[in-house]
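quick one, 111 residues, struct below
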Amino acid sequence: MPGARSVLRRTGVQGHLRRRIEIDRGDVAISNDGSLRHARPGATQHTVRFSTSPKMSSYLVAMAVGDFQCLEAVTDSVPIRSCATPDKKNLGRIALESAQAVLAFTTATTH
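---
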């Protein structure tokens, strides 16, 4: 990630993580949970702050930076995203539909 700088901080021994990443202005940062806000520290970069994670190990955190476009859906109150480069965005529809079906099936069979 040229031009990107990330900061991972543990808030206590519980394993809750607060994250922020500084990226080039034209890029998008995605993570395995939603972002909180975007700030503008400079003319060529911006900062993306992510919500505090649930209790988890830091090796489970995923972040990616680039030219991404995302498709989004909600199933059983769970947000689901499929992100890809602009030329591959429509290929993510089957991934999104599959994730929705798997989540709905799993919810129905475990409750």
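The beta strands are 5-10, 17-24, 28-31, 35-39, 45-50, 63-66, 69-75, 78-84.
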